[in-house]
Amino acid sequence: MSTVKAALVLEDGRVFRGTAFGAEGQTLGEAVFCTAMTGYQETLTDPSYARQIVVATAPQIGNTGWNDEDDESGKIWVAGYAVRDPSRVSSNWRATTTLQGELDKQDVVGIAGIDTRAVVRHLRSRGSMKAGIFSGAALAADEELLARVNGQASMLGADLAEEVSTDAMYTIEPGGDHRFTVVAVDLGIKTNTPRMFAERGVRTHVVPSNTSLDDILALNPNGVFLSNGPGDPATQTGAIALTQGVLERGIPLFGICFGNQILGRALGRSTYKMKFGHRGINIPVIEEGTGRVSITAQNHGFALEGERGEVFDTPFGKAEVSHICANDGTVEGVRLIDGRAFSVQYHPEAAAGPHDAAYLFDRFAGLMEGA
Question: Where is this region: CPSase (predicted)?
Answer without folding.
Answer: 1-180
